[in-house]
Amino acid sequence: MNHLFAFISASEAGQNSNPQSLIQRLNSKAGEIVYEISETKNKDLLFGSTIFADVGGLSASNKSVFFENEDKSCLLFHSCIAPSDLGDPQLQADCTSQVQIAPQLVQLMNNRGGDFIARVKGSLVYMGFDARQQYLHVGKDPFNTASVYWIATLGGILVSTDLRFLALMADKPISLSQKGLASWLSGFPNPAISLFNEIKVLPSGSRLQINRDLREQLVQFWDIAPDNKIVLADQQAYSTQFHALLNNSVAAACRTERDTVVSQMSGGLDSTSVTALAAQVLQGQHKRLLPLSHIYSRAQSCNESDLITEMQRFLKLNDNLQLDVDGEDNRDFLSLYPTALESPGTVLSPRYVSELAIVQANGADVLLSGNGGDEMCWGHSVAYTQRLKEGDFSVIAEVLKACHSVGMSRKQAVKNLFIKPFLPDLLLRVLGHKKSGDLSEGFPAWLTPKAKELAQFETQVNNPFNYQRDPVGFNRYQSLKTTATYNAVRSYQQLSQRFGVEVRHPFFNKELAEFTFAIPAKQLIQGAYPKWLLRNSMSAQLPESVCWNIKKITFDQHFGDLVRENADAIRSLFKHSRLADMELVNEKTLLAEFDRLVNDKNYPLHVDLLYAILTYSWLHTHFPEK
Q: How far is 247 from 273, CA to CA, in rounded Å?
């Protein structure tokens, strides 16, 4: 989608804060940015869409919508919603486009203020002015792929879904935030923490409102509620309800005026589930589904070709688009994963570009992914411990039986799941262990004490789950807020604009999240099978070889080999002393870990080392040392 922006100046401000100053700045950057202004009747407001010239022009496909009513209330938004998603039966009408929905959204905002977003289902990111209450409202649905940033500049407040745009428009240089850098270096980056001191970022599940005096207020409108529990009659009831929620989300993600939808289809459970459901939805609409598969020809541990072929046969799909992602053409790590200004994890990979070009060439403007399946369906191993604490003694035999299937020592499993968790914290600390639920235990060794303190106390997620009472909820919530999956999601979002393609992720759905966090832990993992509920609910729509495959494909080998092949270039990045000068990184310890990876082909590449490499690359690209 095209990026959205809104600028509000104080009603009593001087001429230097008039929106015209922003337009003048836009005009001065005409060679760098393409923009479109949405005219309003209010002289203190400015709305518009932007895109950088090196990305392309404003796309007519997936374009934003602007509407202003007679009382000067207005809304600029991008959405994938139907009238039934508005949460107000009085407003629902026979609308076939987002343009027709626009007046209803403005009316909903006038009726309910900024809280209207809490009632809306589906994908929505918006910036709107409520003329009655004199508030600028900004928000998005909790799992929207767009990021929203704002900065005080030019005598007002500028809001945008593009951080690069804010940096370009700001009247003063932006500076690096040590808190933000520590969050990334810790291996648990919190998306709600900005990498820049002057720029703020909208947390998931929160909305922003700004009054005419430029007073900002963050309001949380949604979160996972630990006290929300769902207990159904039997296994079939859980599977039926879960299947309905996922199917509804996939159906919504398939909305497009085009006749073709492309869906990523590896041999894994998540993307195959989305593809199978999408095939059924589109068949009923007499539209075509094209699966697109990533092929790993070099890293055999990542190769899922046999399962992809089985899926294609099972779903009776005649065509299958394929992209070789680890061929010989380009093995330069830094050019394969160039970082965007948004974050070290947002990479503008040419492989993503090739994939989006394939989607565009096949006449589609929607690409579906299986991203979010782990976060919504994966059952953390502490579920076994939690079940025993709740009196389910059958879990012991269940785990012992599963050990053989997953190649795990029974002795080790019993120690980790059924003995150690029951020891008092005081005894564990005497034995040298950290307190249960202490996330600092997972910090990499190269973080300095200063960085660890920043990461632990300044940037940690506010987790509403109590680790002692609900360790499954605690760990799943932590993963939901800091997952590396968001890197892929935001990378696609950054690159898809130039192709007029929207990448949608049906698993990242509010209703689905609420359901899977509320059901018993046993539904998420049983025996040797994580994602038990997803497997059980999709068993009739997937081949058994896919649905009940317990081998989890990871890409450690692919990334590890790539890093080893580029060891000299990456080591030169580590010579830059900025992070050491900030007292955030112990360079000697970091280089020792990197050398261990390079010298031992069997040593896995851990995500925290990958984050360190990307953070150094990000700094070198966007803030080179002089």
A: 10
What pLDDT does 232 receive? 97
Cα separation, 304 vs 551, whole angstroms: 11
Q: Helix, strand or coil for residue 262?
A: strand
The predicted-structure confidence for 111-137, as pLDDT tens digits, reads as follows 999 999 999 988 999 999 999 999 999
Cβ neighbour number for residue 228 with a 10 Å cutoff: 10
Q: Which pLDDT score, from 0 to 100, does residue 18 have?
A: 73
Among 39, 8, 497, smallest CA distance to 213 is for 8
The conformational region for residue 440 under phi > 0 = left, psi -120 to 50 = alpha, else beta, is: alpha
Q: pLDDT at position 430, please?
A: 46
3-class secondary structure, 123: strand
How many whole angstroms separate alpha carbon 472 and alpha carbon 369? 26
| φ and ψ of 414, to 5 deg | -65, -40
User: With left for phi above 0 and alpha for psi between -120 and 50, is residue 170 left, alpha or beta?
Assistant: beta
Residues 6+ apart with CB under 8 A from 329: none
CB atoms within 10 A of CB 101: 25
Residue 250 has pLDDT above 50, yes or no: yes
Q: Which amino acid is at 605?
A: L
Local confidence band at 428 (pLDDT 50, 70, 90 cut-offs): very low
Q: Annotate 571-606 with three-state secondary structure.
A: HHHCCCCHHHHCCCECHHHHHHHHHHHHHCCCCCCC
* Mean pLDDT, range 317-341, rounded to an integer: 86
Mean of per-residue pLDDT scores for the chain: 89
In whole angstroms, give the CA distance from residue 406 to residue 541. Answer: 25
Strands 339-340 and 343-347: antiparallel
Binned at pLDDT 50, 70 and 90, residue 427 comes out as very low
CB 345 within 8 A of CB 315: no
Q: Which of 232, 231, 287 is nearest to 255 (CA)?
A: 287
pLDDT given for residue 536 in this prediction: 97
In a 3-state reduction of DSSP, which class is residue 171? coil
The DSSP code sequence of 340-379 is ETTEEEEE--HHHHHHHHHHHHTT-SEEE--TTHHHHHPP
The pLDDT score that the predictor gives to residue 12 is: 58
C-beta separation of 121 from 510 below 8 A: yes
N-term to C-term CA, the chain? 35
* Cα–Cα distance, 369 to 357 (Å, whole number): 16
Kindly tell me if the per-residue pLDDT of 447 is higher than 60.
Answer: yes
Give the per-residue pLDDT at 328: 63
- Minimal CA–CA distance to 49: which of 95, 110, 5? 5
Rounded CA-CA distance 615/178 in Å is 12
CA dihedral 404, 410, 416, 418 (to 10 degrees): 110
Q: Strand, helix or coil at 531?
A: coil
Q: What is the pTM of this model?
A: 0.92
599 band by pLDDT with thresholds 50, 70 and 90 = very high
Which letter does DSSP use for residue 216 in this model? E
Q: Are 132 and 71 in contact (CB under 8 A)?
A: yes
SS3 100: helix
